[in-house]
TrEMBL record:
The lineage of its organism: Eukaryota, Viridiplantae, Streptophyta, Embryophyta, Tracheophyta. Its EC number is 2.6.1.85. PROSITE patterns: GATASE_TYPE_1. The keyword Metal-binding does not apply. It is found in: Plastid, Chloroplast. Pathway: Cofactor biosynthesis; tetrahydrofolate biosynthesis; 4-aminobenzoate from chorismate: step 1/2. The keyword Chloroplast applies. It comes from the Eukaryota. This is aminodeoxychorismate synthase. It comes from Papaver somniferum. Keywords: Chloroplast, Folate biosynthesis, Glutamine amidotransferase, Multifunctional enzyme, Plastid, Transferase, Transit peptide. In the C-terminal section; belongs to the anthranilate synthase component I family.
Length: 936
């Protein structure tokens, strides 16, 4: 796909599609794409990526000093004319942004009821007008942020019509919505002096109702997060629009370094409009993001808008009308988010990155008859104080399961001082909790680890939370699942998410089928088919009791609301084992658990009888094997050689999919997209490849885990697909524990370890105080708050840890933790659909960013950028982000890497960071091959 960003001398952003909207009195055209959820909008989006966008000049903003005093008269009195209603009903227009559901969460708490969410191209004006004016279903409207410009109908959709025609309904526009309010009344929208994304500014305001009880000006404590490249030109404001807020100076600050400012080249007088209101209509706009985690007084702004709304209606209707039309509002309400008006269903389209409109979402819903209920029974034994006597997890795995080529095994691995593991037969996952964080608590594969000084200890979060480690599956019930999607090219807008599924059982019988609705729909039905008793596992100190272990590749984004895949992956899009027997080692107490699940739904069947008769023998047999193992001396880890000059992947024999020059040009293209408001952050990636032939992939993984231990590392070996995955990931994508708590732990911001302790501390400090890295991290934190906000109870999404430095064998990273309580009526797969792919690997806004990245990257990401982990039969899961990984497929090793491009990025630095992230896996491959050759 070609991308061009032509320049012009115009100081105003110019789009061919915006000519009809240049003046406020011109009639707005109604695009047919507003009628429903057809493909026209996606086609428009693809055209946006190749359009010629005018380069914007800068004009001197109007100074606000004379305005402040003249507008202080509109002082809001809390108790005067306020209607004592229980809730306020909001229509939230989503401009395909990745922060809309942060607003949703705020409004749900403040209004007392969730808003109705619709995309900006989902409804015709006639349809919406009926609910606004005939049914009176809403008290106010909020227009979300979003990518692009208000001058392009494909970006802004029905919002301009709403702003023009809803003269008597309170409206609040945020960022793009704010710009739309200015543009629709004749103001010009131009490029800001510089793009500002994920950075903070102090705000001064007039003290009007929207900013009631909020301080103003420098050192007042009112700092806001900005995500924008465009602004309203203050010189072009018509008399109908009154500025109410400005940036207090041209400087921005980072989140953690509040006193540090980053001046721009436009001087102290370059204050920008941060808020406007209409002189006669109850319409307001703010350029900044009040919903951001780092914005001060953000909730107060939404509370003030609620009060503005209540006061407005109470003045028009002194007698309460709040309950008259509740039925119409309820027609538009659905559990979680509304994309269907009951009685008038729209065309089907993914709702929450893949959760479809009108779908009843419940873990307790009736099982489809075609699936059939499967009743599982868990049996387990606990062997006290046995772990240290058998030589540790690595020895157990290699002796019991690592013979030959360790075919069809897996290992979920976290390496640390104190180790916790879990094992099983034919599939293997292992947790060896290790990291180099000091001074605070962190999480591994289902484990909370707290470091007190130099002593590490494990602490169970709750009784059902996985403590460890590794799963292997018995040969008797061997089931392998491989899924390959059709390649849906960008031009094929109507392409479905279906693909071919291959299932192999214990006897080698292979069943192939086509899944019209895709793999995640299949997995969802599988998990929903399980029936079990909680008492079977409630005394276990971990969540995973059996189920599916494997990976979902980046290409499955097409099943999560993304338009398409531009590139076809060489590897399957998903591979999973079914795990029914496992061994767990709790190294906190040195205990070993042996678990086996079996199906009891059809005891008369041959398979059912085999399961029932063999489960006990497997427990006994495995116990005997463990007791026979002699303590083995673990191999002493070799000291890491510190090298000042680290060879590049190319020097080590890897071929890069992109040259250095091309990668840097792509970074420049990303910066142009960011400048034009198409994205706030773009995670650009590429791949390194090398022919390896018949390599000992397990030996390679053992070498990688020594050199680069990580909390979410993994080994997967799918022998039939000739596919091995050696992963040393430090990042969790998403976890759902036994209490229904969802947790994400994104990483954004990476720097190499120092050669000595002094240099190491300096680099760590530089990372922690880097404005660029903080901006990257903050943007992804807000994005993941949005993703969790789609599937979590209102008010439950929170950030217990923000931008903490975690240190690993080769790098320091900035890590944040986001949590929320899952809505009871949603399934684990619904949660994955809402957040996949992980925001740290895409950028924000996610949908538009992925479209841009697909057009720039010249190959499929495959396993890289996907997720590895488990889905337990008891409806819990834990998934990582696949980074720092060697994928060995059909005799070729590939290593993916990239980095987040933001407005502060420099192409040379971004290339260097990408290379840094490849060094550990690439060097491991080369050193292992040299050692292997030496022993031949």
């Amino acid at each position: 796909m070609s991308i061009s960003l032509a320049s012009s001398s115009s100081s105003e952003i110019s789009y061919p599609c915006s000519k009809n909207l240049q003046h406020k009195n011109e009639k707005l055209p109604v695009s047919k794409c507003f009628v429903g959820l057809g493909s026209s909008n996606k086609q428009n989006r693809q055209r946006l990526l190749s359009r010629d966008a005018g380069k914007v000049g800068v004009s001197r903003p109007l100074m606000p000093e004379h305005v402040k005093e003249s507008y202080m008269g509109e002082k809001y009195h809390k108790d005067e004319g306020i209607q004592k209603t229980k809730y306020v009903r909001t229509l939230l227009i989503d401009n395909y942004d990745s922060y809309t559901y942060n607003i949703y969460q705020e409004l749900s708490v403040i209004n007392g009821v969730p808003p109705v969410v619709v995309h900006n191209d989902e409804l015709t004006w006639e349809f919406l007008q009926h609910y606004l004016y005939e049914e009176k279903a809403f008290d106010n409207i909020v227009i979300s942020p979003g990518p692009g410009s208000p001058m392009c109908p494909a970006d802004i959709g029905i919002c301009l019509q709403i702003l023009l025609k809803c003269k008597d309904i309170p409206i609040l526009g945020v960022c793009l919505g704010h710009q739309a309010l200015g543009y629709v009344h004749g103001a010009r929208v131009i490029h800001a002096p510089e793009p500002v994304h994920g950075r903070l500014s102090e705000i001064e305001h007039t003290g009007c109702n929207l900013f009631l009880e909020i301080p103003s000006g420098r050192n007042s404590g009112f700092k806001v997060v900005r995500y924008h490249s465009l602004v309203i030109d203050a010189h072009s404001l018509p008399k109908e629009l009154i500025p109410i807020a400005w940036s207090s100076s041209a400087n921005t600050t980072s989140f953690l370094e509040n006193q540090k400012v980053t001046p721009n080249s436009f001087g102290e007088n370059a204050k920008l409009i941060m808020g406007i209101r209409h002189s006669t209509r109850p319409h307001y706009g703010v350029q900044f993001h009040p919903e951001s985690i780092a914005t001060c007084h953000g909730r107060q702004i939404f509370q003030n808008f609620r009060r503005i709304t209540m006061d407005y209606w109470s003045r028009l209707f002194p007698v309460s009308k709040s309950n008259i039309h509740d039925n119409a509002w309820m027609q538009m309400q659905l559990p979680r988010a509304s994309r269907v008006f009951r009685g008038k269903q729209l065309k089907s389209k993914p709702l929450v990155n893949g959760v479809q409109a009108g779908k009843t979402l419940s873990m307790c819903k009736p099982v489809n008859e075609s699936i059939g209920a499967r009743f599982l029974k868990l049996k387990w034994k606990k062997l006290d104080r046995l772990a240290s006597q058998v030589g540790g997890a690595k020895t157990i795995f290699c002796k019991l399961f690592g013979d030959g080529k360790a075919e069809n095994t897996f290992w979920l691995d976290s390496s640390s001082v104190e180790q916790v593991y879990l094992f099983a037969k034919q599939m293997f996952s292992y947790h060896d909790n290790s990291t180099r964080i000091e001074g605070h608590a962190f999480h591994l594969w289902g484990v909370k680890v707290e470091l007190c000084g130099s002593k590490s200890r494990l602490e169970y979060l709750t009784k059902g939370e996985i403590v460890s480690a590794s799963f292997q599956w018995v040969v008797l019930c061997k089931i392998f699942i491989f899924f390959n999607r059709y390649c849906a090219h960008a031009s094929d807008i109507n392409a479905k998410s279906g693909g071919y599924l291959s299932i192999e059982d214990a006897n080698g019988f292979v069943e192939n089928k086509f899944l019209e609705n895709g793999f995640l729909d299949f997995l969802d039905k599988e998990l929903r088919s399980f029936r079990y008793e909680k008492k079977d596992y409630e005394e276990l100190p971990f969540d995973f009791c059996g189920g599916y272990v494997g990976f979902i590749g980046y290409g499955l984004k097409a099943e999560c609301g993304m338009a398409s895949n531009c590139h076809e992956s060489r590897t399957p899009d998903a591979c999973f084992f079914f795990v029914d027997n496992m061994v767990v080692i709790d190294h906190r107490n040195d205990d070993v658990y042996i678990l086996s699940i079996h199906e009891i739904a059809y005891p008369e069947s041959t398979l059912g009888q085999a399961l029932n008769s063999n489960s006990k023998s497997w427990l006994d047999e495995t116990e005997e094997k463990l007791l026979r193992l002699k303590t083995a001396a673990t191999e002493k880890l070799k000291e890491k050689n510190s090298e000042s000059d680290v060879p590049t992947p190319q020097e080590l024999g890897f071929h890069a999919e992109k040259s250095k020059d091309q990668y840097m040009k792509d970074v420049e293209t990303c910066l142009n997209f960011i400048k034009d408001g198409e994205s706030y952050e773009l995670c650009l990636t590429t791949q390194m490849r090398k022919k390896t032939g018949d390599i000992d992939s397990l030996g390679l993984y053992l070498s990688l885990r020594e050199k680069n231990p990580a909390p979410y590392a993994a080994w997967l070996n799918f022998s039939k697909e000739n596919l091995s995955i050696c992963c040393s990931s430090p990042e969790r994508f998403l976890q759902l524990d036994g209490r229904g708590t969802l947790e994400a732990k994104p990483i954004k911001g990476t720097v190499a370890r120092g050669l000595n302790s002094v240099e190491d501390e300096q680099l760590k400090s530089q990372l922690q105080h880097s404005e660029k890295d903080q901006a990257e991290n903050l943007m992804i934190v807000d994005l993941l708050r949005n993703d969790l906000g789609r599937v979590c109870e209102p008010g439950s999404v929170h950030v217990p840890r923000l931008m903490e430095v975690e240190s690993y064998a080769t790098v320091h990273t900035l890590v944040s933790t986001i949590r929320g309580e899952k809505c009871a009526n949603l399934t684990p797969i619904d949660c994955v659909r809402a957040a996949f792919p992980g925001g740290s690997m895409t950028g924000a806004p996610k949908l538009r960013s992925i479209e841009i990245l697909d057009s720039l990257e010249n190959c499929a990401r495959g396993v890289y950028s996907g997720s590895i982990g488990f889905f337990s039969y008891n409806q819990t899961f834990d998934l990582n982000i696949v980074i720092r990984t060697v994928v060995i497929h059909e005799g070729e090793a590939s290593v993916g890497a990239g980095g987040a491009i933001v407005s502060l990025s420099k192409p040379e630095d971004e290339y260097d960071e990408m290379i840094l992230k490849t060094q550990a896996p690439v060097k491991t491959v080369m050193e292992f091959q040299r050692k292997s050759s030496a022993h031949e």
